[in-house]
Protein backbone atom coordinates (compact mmCIF):
# COMPACT_ATOMS: atom_id res chain seq x y z
CA UNK A 1 0.00 0.00 0.00
CA UNK A 2 1.53 3.26 -1.17
CA UNK A 3 1.28 6.77 0.28
CA UNK A 4 2.31 10.21 -0.97
CA UNK A 5 3.18 12.62 1.88
CA UNK A 6 3.65 16.32 1.09
CA UNK A 7 5.98 18.60 3.09
CA UNK A 8 8.26 15.71 4.04
CA UNK A 9 10.89 17.99 5.59
CA UNK A 10 8.54 19.30 8.27
CA UNK A 11 8.35 18.72 12.03
CA UNK A 12 5.06 16.79 11.97
CA UNK A 13 5.72 15.08 8.62
CA UNK A 14 8.97 13.54 9.87
CA UNK A 15 7.01 11.72 12.57
CA UNK A 16 4.39 10.68 10.02
CA UNK A 17 7.15 9.12 7.89
CA UNK A 18 8.29 7.06 10.89
CA UNK A 19 4.79 5.75 11.57
CA UNK A 20 4.01 5.06 7.90
CA UNK A 21 7.18 2.95 7.63
CA UNK A 22 6.47 1.18 10.93
CA UNK A 23 2.97 0.33 9.69
CA UNK A 24 4.39 -1.07 6.44
CA UNK A 25 3.36 1.61 3.94
CA UNK A 26 5.51 2.40 0.91
CA UNK A 27 6.13 6.10 1.30
CA UNK A 28 7.01 8.86 -1.15
CA UNK A 29 7.51 12.35 0.26
CA UNK A 30 7.45 15.67 -1.56
CA UNK A 31 10.13 18.23 -0.65
CA UNK A 32 11.15 21.61 -2.05
CA UNK A 33 14.71 20.61 -3.01
CA UNK A 34 16.94 17.62 -3.79
CA UNK A 35 19.01 18.48 -0.73
CA UNK A 36 16.01 18.17 1.61
CA UNK A 37 15.04 14.89 -0.02
CA UNK A 38 18.52 13.43 0.36
CA UNK A 39 18.60 14.35 4.05
CA UNK A 40 15.39 12.42 4.64
CA UNK A 41 16.85 9.34 2.94
CA UNK A 42 20.07 9.73 4.99
CA UNK A 43 18.01 9.73 8.18
CA UNK A 44 16.54 6.38 7.03
CA UNK A 45 19.70 4.86 5.64
CA UNK A 46 18.54 1.30 6.39
CA UNK A 47 15.19 1.67 4.66
CA UNK A 48 15.12 0.18 1.14
CA UNK A 49 14.44 2.69 -1.63
CA UNK A 50 11.22 1.01 -2.71
CA UNK A 51 9.90 1.72 0.82
CA UNK A 52 10.96 5.39 0.98
CA UNK A 53 11.73 7.92 -1.73
CA UNK A 54 11.14 11.58 -2.54
CA UNK A 55 9.99 13.82 -5.38
CA UNK A 56 10.73 17.52 -5.65
CA UNK A 57 7.76 19.90 -5.78
CA UNK A 58 9.31 23.36 -5.65
CA UNK A 59 6.28 25.58 -5.26
CA UNK A 60 2.96 24.10 -4.16
CA UNK A 61 1.10 27.29 -5.20
CA UNK A 62 1.98 26.86 -8.90
CA UNK A 63 -0.77 25.64 -11.23
CA UNK A 64 -0.17 21.95 -11.87
CA UNK A 65 2.56 21.73 -9.20
CA UNK A 66 1.53 18.21 -8.17
CA UNK A 67 0.59 16.86 -11.60
CA UNK A 68 3.74 14.76 -11.93
CA UNK A 69 4.23 13.95 -8.22
CA UNK A 70 0.88 12.17 -7.92
CA UNK A 71 1.74 9.79 -10.79
CA UNK A 72 3.60 6.72 -9.62
CA UNK A 73 4.12 3.08 -10.45
CA UNK A 74 2.70 1.19 -8.62
CA UNK A 75 0.11 3.92 -8.12
CA UNK A 76 -0.70 5.70 -4.85
CA UNK A 77 -3.50 4.49 -2.59
CA UNK A 78 -3.49 7.45 -0.20
CA UNK A 79 -2.21 11.01 0.02
CA UNK A 80 -1.34 12.94 3.20
CA UNK A 81 -1.06 16.70 2.64
CA UNK A 82 0.89 18.49 5.37
CA UNK A 83 2.83 21.12 3.38
CA UNK A 84 1.73 24.61 4.38
CA UNK A 85 3.56 27.63 5.78
CA UNK A 86 3.58 27.92 9.57
CA UNK A 87 5.57 30.89 10.90
CA UNK A 88 4.92 34.46 11.94
CA UNK A 89 7.35 36.21 9.64
CA UNK A 90 4.70 37.81 7.42
CA UNK A 91 5.95 39.84 4.45
CA UNK A 92 3.30 39.32 1.80
CA UNK A 93 0.20 37.65 3.30
CA UNK A 94 -1.12 36.41 -0.04
CA UNK A 95 2.12 35.12 -1.51
CA UNK A 96 3.60 33.79 1.75
CA UNK A 97 0.49 32.22 3.32
CA UNK A 98 -2.84 32.28 1.52
CA UNK A 99 -1.60 31.10 -1.88
CA UNK A 100 0.52 28.13 -0.73
CA UNK A 101 -2.09 27.03 1.82
CA UNK A 102 -5.19 27.34 -0.38
CA UNK A 103 -3.81 26.73 -3.88
CA UNK A 104 -1.55 24.02 -2.49
CA UNK A 105 -4.60 22.19 -1.14
CA UNK A 106 -6.87 22.64 -4.14
CA UNK A 107 -3.92 21.95 -6.44
CA UNK A 108 -3.18 18.57 -4.98
CA UNK A 109 -6.86 17.57 -4.98
CA UNK A 110 -7.19 18.56 -8.66
CA UNK A 111 -4.01 16.68 -9.54
CA UNK A 112 -5.24 13.52 -7.81
CA UNK A 113 -8.62 13.72 -9.51
CA UNK A 114 -7.01 14.17 -12.93
CA UNK A 115 -3.97 11.88 -12.69
CA UNK A 116 -4.25 9.45 -9.77
CA UNK A 117 -7.57 7.60 -9.95
CA UNK A 118 -6.28 4.88 -7.57
CA UNK A 119 -6.20 7.26 -4.57
CA UNK A 120 -8.96 6.37 -2.12
CA UNK A 121 -8.48 9.02 0.56
CA UNK A 122 -6.63 12.29 1.12
CA UNK A 123 -5.84 13.32 4.70
CA UNK A 124 -5.18 17.04 5.10
CA UNK A 125 -3.34 18.65 8.01
CA UNK A 126 -5.67 21.43 8.96
CA UNK A 127 -5.53 23.06 12.41
CA UNK A 128 -7.39 24.26 15.47
CA UNK A 129 -6.77 27.57 13.68
CA UNK A 130 -9.67 26.56 11.38
CA UNK A 131 -11.88 25.88 14.43
CA UNK A 132 -11.10 28.67 16.90
CA UNK A 133 -13.23 31.80 17.27
CA UNK A 134 -10.75 33.93 19.18
CA UNK A 135 -13.09 36.92 19.66
CA UNK A 136 -16.04 34.90 20.86
CA UNK A 137 -15.17 31.45 22.18
CA UNK A 138 -18.03 28.94 22.27
CA UNK A 139 -18.67 27.07 25.54
CA UNK A 140 -17.24 23.88 24.06
CA UNK A 141 -14.88 23.45 21.09
CA UNK A 142 -15.39 20.45 18.83
CA UNK A 143 -15.33 19.61 15.11
CA UNK A 144 -18.63 21.54 14.81
CA UNK A 145 -16.88 24.89 15.14
CA UNK A 146 -15.37 26.99 12.36
CA UNK A 147 -13.15 30.04 12.54
CA UNK A 148 -15.43 32.88 11.26
CA UNK A 149 -12.52 34.85 9.72
CA UNK A 150 -13.51 36.77 6.54
CA UNK A 151 -11.53 37.38 3.35
CA UNK A 152 -11.23 41.06 4.31
CA UNK A 153 -9.63 40.12 7.65
CA UNK A 154 -7.45 37.41 6.16
CA UNK A 155 -4.64 39.72 5.01
CA UNK A 156 -4.24 41.17 8.52
CA UNK A 157 -0.74 40.03 9.51
CA UNK A 158 -1.90 38.77 12.90
CA UNK A 159 -4.72 36.72 11.37
CA UNK A 160 -3.25 35.44 8.14
CA UNK A 161 -1.88 32.12 9.41
CA UNK A 162 -5.19 31.10 10.94
CA UNK A 163 -7.05 32.40 7.88
CA UNK A 164 -4.79 30.39 5.57
CA UNK A 165 -5.66 27.19 7.42
CA UNK A 166 -9.38 28.02 7.55
CA UNK A 167 -9.72 28.84 3.85
CA UNK A 168 -7.55 25.91 2.81
CA UNK A 169 -9.70 23.45 4.75
CA UNK A 170 -12.93 25.02 3.48
CA UNK A 171 -11.61 24.81 -0.07
CA UNK A 172 -10.95 21.09 0.40
CA UNK A 173 -14.47 20.31 1.64
CA UNK A 174 -15.94 22.47 -1.16
CA UNK A 175 -13.82 20.63 -3.73
CA UNK A 176 -15.15 17.26 -2.62
CA UNK A 177 -18.77 18.50 -2.51
CA UNK A 178 -18.60 20.03 -6.01
CA UNK A 179 -16.23 17.76 -7.88
CA UNK A 180 -17.33 14.45 -6.37
CA UNK A 181 -13.94 12.80 -6.91
CA UNK A 182 -13.19 9.08 -6.46
CA UNK A 183 -11.57 9.76 -3.10
CA UNK A 184 -12.88 11.09 0.19
CA UNK A 185 -11.02 13.37 2.57
CA UNK A 186 -10.39 13.64 6.30
CA UNK A 187 -8.79 16.56 8.14
CA UNK A 188 -6.62 16.52 11.24
CA UNK A 189 -7.06 19.71 13.30
CA UNK A 190 -4.40 19.99 16.02
CA UNK A 191 -3.78 22.99 18.28
CA UNK A 192 -0.16 23.80 19.28
CA UNK A 193 2.00 20.74 18.64
CA UNK A 194 4.95 20.00 20.93
CA UNK A 195 7.33 17.09 20.79
CA UNK A 196 10.73 15.74 19.92
CA UNK A 197 12.42 16.92 16.76
CA UNK A 198 13.21 14.08 14.36
CA UNK A 199 13.46 16.14 11.15
CA UNK A 200 16.75 17.60 9.95
CA UNK A 201 17.64 20.67 11.98
CA UNK A 202 21.04 22.30 11.62
CA UNK A 203 20.52 24.84 14.38
CA UNK A 204 18.00 25.74 17.06
CA UNK A 205 17.53 29.05 15.24
CA UNK A 206 15.60 27.03 12.67
CA UNK A 207 13.38 25.24 15.19
CA UNK A 208 9.80 24.76 13.98
CA UNK A 209 7.33 27.40 15.17
CA UNK A 210 5.37 25.40 17.75
CA UNK A 211 8.47 24.20 19.65
CA UNK A 212 9.96 27.71 19.82
CA UNK A 213 8.64 28.48 23.29
CA UNK A 214 10.25 25.34 24.73
CA UNK A 215 13.57 26.39 23.18
CA UNK A 216 13.12 29.94 24.52
CA UNK A 217 12.47 28.66 28.04
CA UNK A 218 15.54 26.40 28.16
CA UNK A 219 17.73 29.14 26.69
CA UNK A 220 16.75 31.41 29.60
CA UNK A 221 14.67 33.80 27.49
CA UNK A 222 11.78 33.71 29.99
CA UNK A 223 13.96 33.84 33.09
CA UNK A 224 12.84 37.36 34.01
CA UNK A 225 9.25 36.96 32.92
CA UNK A 226 7.18 34.14 31.48
CA UNK A 227 5.80 35.18 28.10
CA UNK A 228 1.99 35.10 27.73
CA UNK A 229 0.89 31.61 26.67
CA UNK A 230 -1.27 33.02 23.87
CA UNK A 231 -2.85 29.64 23.18
CA UNK A 232 -3.88 27.12 25.81
CA UNK A 233 -4.40 23.88 23.90
CA UNK A 234 -1.70 21.46 22.86
CA UNK A 235 -1.04 17.95 21.57
CA UNK A 236 2.02 15.69 21.17
CA UNK A 237 3.50 15.44 17.66
CA UNK A 238 3.56 11.63 17.85
CA UNK A 239 -0.18 11.57 18.52
CA UNK A 240 -0.79 13.97 15.64
CA UNK A 241 1.30 11.80 13.35
CA UNK A 242 -0.54 8.65 14.43
CA UNK A 243 -3.86 10.43 13.81
CA UNK A 244 -2.85 11.00 10.17
CA UNK A 245 -1.96 7.35 9.65
CA UNK A 246 -5.04 6.04 11.47
CA UNK A 247 -7.13 8.34 9.28
CA UNK A 248 -6.08 6.29 6.25
CA UNK A 249 -6.24 2.93 8.02
CA UNK A 250 -9.72 3.33 9.47
CA UNK A 251 -12.49 3.21 6.88
CA UNK A 252 -15.04 5.32 8.78
CA UNK A 253 -12.56 8.18 9.27
CA UNK A 254 -13.43 9.31 5.73
CA UNK A 255 -15.46 12.50 5.41
CA UNK A 256 -14.65 13.69 8.94
CA UNK A 257 -12.67 16.42 10.69
CA UNK A 258 -10.69 15.40 13.77
CA UNK A 259 -9.97 17.86 16.57
CA UNK A 260 -6.88 16.24 18.10
CA UNK A 261 -5.88 17.74 21.44
CA UNK A 262 -4.55 16.43 24.74
CA UNK A 263 -5.92 19.39 26.70
CA UNK A 264 -4.81 22.66 28.28
CA UNK A 265 -1.39 24.01 29.06
CA UNK A 266 0.25 27.30 29.97
CA UNK A 267 3.86 28.37 29.66
CA UNK A 268 4.03 28.15 33.45
CA UNK A 269 3.12 24.42 33.27
CA UNK A 270 5.90 23.88 30.73
CA UNK A 271 8.40 25.65 33.00
CA UNK A 272 7.43 23.57 36.05
CA UNK A 273 7.73 20.31 34.10
CA UNK A 274 11.22 21.28 32.95
CA UNK A 275 12.17 22.21 36.54
CA UNK A 276 11.31 18.63 37.54
CA UNK A 277 12.56 16.73 34.50
CA UNK A 278 15.79 18.71 33.90
CA UNK A 279 17.04 20.14 37.23
CA UNK A 280 20.34 21.05 35.55
CA UNK A 281 18.44 23.78 33.66
CA UNK A 282 17.23 25.50 36.88
CA UNK A 283 19.41 28.59 36.34
CA UNK A 284 17.62 29.28 33.02
CA UNK A 285 14.10 29.10 34.48
CA UNK A 286 11.84 31.80 35.90
CA UNK A 287 11.14 31.62 39.69
CA UNK A 288 8.76 28.91 40.82
CA UNK A 289 6.31 31.45 42.26
CA UNK A 290 5.69 32.97 38.81
CA UNK A 291 1.93 33.04 38.12
CA UNK A 292 0.10 30.94 35.53
CA UNK A 293 -2.00 32.79 32.96
CA UNK A 294 -4.37 29.88 32.25
CA UNK A 295 -7.84 31.47 32.61
CA UNK A 296 -10.00 29.96 35.36
CA UNK A 297 -13.13 29.94 33.19
CA UNK A 298 -11.66 28.66 29.97
CA UNK A 299 -13.84 27.09 27.24
CA UNK A 300 -14.32 23.33 27.31
CA UNK A 301 -13.05 20.93 24.68
CA UNK A 302 -14.57 17.81 23.18
CA UNK A 303 -12.06 15.47 21.53
CA UNK A 304 -14.31 12.40 21.74
CA UNK A 305 -14.34 11.77 17.99
CA UNK A 306 -10.56 11.46 17.82
CA UNK A 307 -10.60 8.94 20.65
CA UNK A 308 -13.57 6.92 19.42
CA UNK A 309 -12.91 6.84 15.68
CA UNK A 310 -9.10 7.07 15.55
CA UNK A 311 -8.52 5.31 18.88
CA UNK A 312 -6.09 7.99 20.04
CA UNK A 313 -4.81 7.87 23.61
CA UNK A 314 -3.17 11.20 24.28
CA UNK A 315 0.27 11.58 25.79
CA UNK A 316 0.50 13.80 28.86
CA UNK A 317 2.32 17.14 28.90
CA UNK A 318 5.01 15.85 31.27
CA UNK A 319 6.22 13.16 28.87
CA UNK A 320 5.99 15.42 25.84
CA UNK A 321 7.88 18.38 27.30
CA UNK A 322 10.56 16.19 28.83
CA UNK A 323 11.12 14.41 25.49
CA UNK A 324 11.08 17.74 23.63
CA UNK A 325 13.75 19.18 25.92
CA UNK A 326 15.91 16.06 25.50
CA UNK A 327 15.72 16.41 21.74
CA UNK A 328 16.55 20.15 21.82
CA UNK A 329 19.52 19.53 24.12
CA UNK A 330 20.74 16.95 21.62
CA UNK A 331 20.68 19.62 18.87
CA UNK A 332 22.69 21.89 21.18
CA UNK A 333 20.31 24.13 23.15
P1 LIG B 1 7.06 22.88 9.62
O1 LIG B 1 7.32 24.31 9.34
O2 LIG B 1 8.10 22.08 10.26
O3 LIG B 1 6.59 22.14 8.30
C1 LIG B 1 5.96 22.79 7.26
C2 LIG B 1 6.17 21.98 6.00
O4 LIG B 1 5.49 22.62 4.92
C3 LIG B 1 7.64 21.91 5.61
O5 LIG B 1 7.89 20.68 4.99
C4 LIG B 1 7.76 23.03 4.61
O6 LIG B 1 8.80 22.87 3.68
C5 LIG B 1 6.42 22.93 3.93
N1 LIG B 1 6.07 24.22 3.33
C6 LIG B 1 5.85 25.38 3.97
N2 LIG B 1 5.58 26.33 3.08
C7 LIG B 1 5.63 25.76 1.87
C8 LIG B 1 5.45 26.23 0.55
N3 LIG B 1 5.17 27.51 0.30
N4 LIG B 1 5.61 25.35 -0.46
C9 LIG B 1 5.94 24.07 -0.20
N5 LIG B 1 6.10 23.55 1.01
C10 LIG B 1 5.96 24.41 2.04
O7 LIG B 1 5.73 22.90 10.51
P2 LIG B 1 4.78 21.76 11.05
O8 LIG B 1 5.34 20.42 10.84
O9 LIG B 1 4.39 22.18 12.38
O10 LIG B 1 3.51 21.96 10.10
C11 LIG B 1 2.99 20.94 9.26
C12 LIG B 1 1.53 21.20 9.05
O11 LIG B 1 0.86 21.13 10.31
C13 LIG B 1 1.15 22.55 8.45
O12 LIG B 1 0.07 22.35 7.57
C14 LIG B 1 0.70 23.35 9.67
O13 LIG B 1 -0.22 24.37 9.32
C15 LIG B 1 0.01 22.24 10.46
N6 LIG B 1 -0.17 22.53 11.88
C16 LIG B 1 0.91 22.65 12.72
C17 LIG B 1 0.71 22.88 14.06
C18 LIG B 1 1.85 23.01 15.01
O14 LIG B 1 1.64 23.48 16.15
N7 LIG B 1 3.07 22.59 14.66
C19 LIG B 1 -0.64 23.05 14.62
C20 LIG B 1 -1.70 22.86 13.65
C21 LIG B 1 -1.46 22.60 12.34
P3 LIG B 1 10.30 23.43 3.96
O15 LIG B 1 10.90 22.50 4.99
O16 LIG B 1 10.95 23.33 2.64
O17 LIG B 1 10.14 24.82 4.47
UniProtKB/TrEMBL annotation:
It comes from the Eukaryota. It holds the Pfam family Epimerase. CDD domains: AR_SDR_e. Keywords: Oxidoreductase. One of its GO terms (molecular function) is oxidoreductase activity, acting on the CH-OH group of donors, NAD or NADP as acceptor. Residues 3-254 form the NAD-dependent epimerase/dehydratase domain. Belongs to the NAD(P)-dependent epimerase/dehydratase family. Dihydroflavonol-4-reductase subfamily. This is NAD-dependent epimerase/dehydratase domain-containing protein.
Amino acid sequence: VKVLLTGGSGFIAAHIVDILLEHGFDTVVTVRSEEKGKRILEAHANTPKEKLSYVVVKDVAQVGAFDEAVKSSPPFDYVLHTASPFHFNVQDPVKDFLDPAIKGTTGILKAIKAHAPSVKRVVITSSFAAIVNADNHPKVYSEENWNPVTWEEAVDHSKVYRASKTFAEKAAWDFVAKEKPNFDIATINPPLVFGPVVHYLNSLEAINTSNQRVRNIIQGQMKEQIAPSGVYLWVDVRDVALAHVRAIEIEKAGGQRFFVTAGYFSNKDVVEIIRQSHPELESKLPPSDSPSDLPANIYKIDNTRSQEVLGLKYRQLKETISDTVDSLLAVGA
